Amino acid sequence: MDKSNPQLGSNTLAAQYIFPGQSQGLYRLGGGISTKLLTDPIDFSVKPKSVEPVLINSYLLWAEAKANPTDTTKMLTQLVLTIGKAKTFDNHLPPPYLGCFDCENIAFIPYHTMLNIFGQNDFNWNVAPSDSNTKEFKQVYTQISSILNPASKDETVLFNFEKDEKELKKFISDNFTLSNTETSKIQINKNNFVNVYNKWLKDVQPSIRIGLGWDAAKKAGIIDGDFYLADLLSEENITIREKLYVLLQTDRYVVGRKINFLGLEESSTVSFRDGQKAHKQFWAKYKRPPLPEYWDYIVDRRDLLVPQDIRERKGSYYTPQIWVELSQKYIADALGENWQDEYYVWDCCAGTGNLLLGLTNKNNIWASTLDQADVDVMLDRIQNGANLWPSQVFQFDFLNDEFEKLPKGLQDIINDEEKRKKLVVYINPPYAEAATAGTVQGTGINKIGVSKGNRTHIKYKKEISNAANELFAQFLIRIYKEIEKCIIANFSTLKSLQSSNFSDFRKIFKAKLDNIFLVPANTFDNVKGEFPIGFFVWDTEVDEIFEQIPACVYDKNGILVRKKMVRNYDNYKYINNWYKNHYDNKGKEIGVLNTRGNDFQNQNYIRVSTENNYNHTNIITSNNLIPTSVYVAVRHCIPADWLNDRDQFLFPNEKWETDYTFQADCLTYTLFNNNIQSKYGTNHWIPFLEKEVSAQDKFTSNFMTGFIAGKIKQEQKPEITPSMFAQNVTTAINYQEYFSTEAKAVFDAGRELWKYYHKQPACNVNASLYDIREHFQNRDESGRMKTTSADDTYNKLNANLRTAIKVLAKKIEPKVYEYGFLKE
Fold first, then answer.
1. Cβ neighbours of 689 (radius 10 Å)
2. pLDDT per residue over 65-84, tens digit each?
3. How do 44-48 and 33-35 pair as beta strands?
4. Are the C-beta atoms of 500 and 569 separated by less than 8 Å?
5. What is the DSSP letter of 421?
């Protein structure tokens, strides 16, 4: 790249290259544009050189900068976490682009592609943005990776300074140009309309006189986001999209227009508390309406303006187009390539209708949704080219309303058995249940009224039991029971197939599952967590209890990666049923085991500790130490991921009981994977003798080395099985004789770590592995243990131990399947 100050033209970004490491970053900026250091900790930013007060907080680029070659996705992840942590978008309007650069490359990505990441609920933005080991960093890294993937339709661009100098200059010239007719109003586009909405909430919303208040309005289905849309899509204070639910008419809003029984239009009007003063002051800063190319996008993403609790209850979530297209392919596979001409389609929780995009025969398509505002959005989209008939788009509360309220054409289909067989109820129903993660942990309360109290819940709750707490299950059961012999094509979690809470549901819902595919849940808008979302095609005319089905698995980019057998576990006994046979309340307690749940999603709750203050804890003694170790190793040796999240651990066969090498491997795994802390009592879990680790004093307990050497006997219950573990005898096994090469490697790595710790002047002679890690890694301001230490020797020794444990885990894994703890 020419570093002699090449000019790219007036009013454009980039005039001279500055070497990495200098304070201002990558480029000095020429006419009309300047670098500007934010008070927020963003490395590099670009903003207009403007004396206009309204443009003070307006930017063209926020970027992450590194002196040395660095992974682009990693840099962008750090930038996103930096912005999210500092809430930069609350104080400054977001720029058109985010970027990152090092000494070799520079990348630009449209800001609007990150809206779903910034909009995540219950996301911990307080982590250190530079710490790539946090789960938050890994989550955002995965999300950005899918955006940066070459198969993505988003316009992400990457340039090499040397090889792509000409193209880079042109990109900057084309995309970072200020026109000579710069106005004093801020342009609103798909990058910043949500952020402007958040400012509108603070400045304008309180000035709107909304009857009994916004909480009451929200319960009635009226949201402030519709008032914002009326403002935004207006000119001279008149809303120009006439089909919206709320319209701005100069000095008031018109809400909920409808035709009454006399054929006359009626509506409600909403005025301002302050004579429209706050409204006028706010919109004096912004250019309205946005450019026409953004109108459809903004209306289509109305869901981003819907409060989270409403989104959960009413299903205001945006189904990614990649899965919309794939779902329609799977319907075609099940029903034939001419299915759109041969079948009717009803989306009874359509939202703004994006699930219906791609369908071609609008004569056969019906769309209903709970909120009239969403109906108005669909009608507006029809005026702008959406392939639907206005007469077949309507408001309908599926979980409460009687079918007599449906349009006559749809009633005719539902009331005719032969036509009903040709009806596809095609839905991505709302996902909400009565419990939260906090409830599971004992730190929260059940959601009140989220999925209970509607007509469908009341009618079917006795039949489907706990499944009635799930909104999607309510949709499925009403369709199945009241629209008999139709086809159901729906997105949902796998609970309807696998969850023990759905066992009664499966006894009633006996449709034949013709087809299914699985995708990562976090590819859906604002869905948190790593678990599978399935798309199901059900034939309700065929009576069949679901047992199992091979499902196609697609990654975040829509690439088929494998097939997975999805099972109903109703006829299986679970691992916790097995472990109950090994409860022991008579022996001497050496720790406790938490045994929450039977699936991978509960993996983080499965722990050995010395704190007996959790639910689902069981005492560990010498008599059940081996079954406990087997339990822990089996539950942890295979990493939980989005795909196995709902897989169930099962009651094993008897073969494990005579495999002493397997038992020794599991014991080793558990000894180096626990939360034992000496501050809560005697540490019985030290796996070494004092002389092995050059301890500075005698250990309080040598229980574990005695157990390993076969010096401590195990008393077994007679009712378990006919094996050694079932005999009413006491036995002692010298597990040293059965340690595998992999287990010995773990002991060797652990021994070196213990030795190093006992060289420390302030060491606790009875320290557990947890204590040792806490000593070296310390804790951050929030009280969390840091992921690494300032002591490089410790970091190396700890890494060696972790590597050895991973190798041991891979050795244990095949036995998990062989002994029946998991099904392939």
1. 13
2. 998 899 999 999 999 999 98
3. antiparallel
4. yes
5. T
Angle between helices 193-203 and 224-232 in degrees, nearest 10: 110
Q: Are 693 and 754 in contact (CB under 8 A)?
A: yes
CB atoms within 10 A of CB 759: 11
Tell me the C-alpha to C-alpha distance, in Å, between residue 185 and each of 180, 195, 287, 629, 733.
14, 16, 5, 66, 80
Whose CA is closest to 492, among 557, 536, 461, 538? 536
Strand segments, DSSP code E, in 610-743 are 617-620, 714-715, 730-731
Residue 346 DSSP symbol: E
pLDDT of 349 reads: 92
Percent of the chain topping pLDDT 90: 54
Low pLDDT (below 70) residues in the chain = 1-40, 49-58, 90, 120-122, 149-156, 177-185, 259-263, 265, 307-318, 431-452, 525-526, 613-616, 715-730
3-state secondary structure of 248: strand
How many whole angstroms separate alpha carbon 54 and alpha carbon 172? 24
Q: Report the DSSP pairing between strands 617-620 and 186-187.
A: unpaired
Radius of gyration of the chain measured on its C-alpha atoms: 31
Cα(361)–Cα(629) distance, integer angstroms: 59
Is residue 577 helix, strand or coil?
Answer: helix
Q: How many C-beta atoms surround the C-beta of residue 820 within 10 A?
A: 18
Distance CA 12, CA 29 (A): 8
Residues linked to residue 562 through DSSP beta bridges, in sequence order: 553
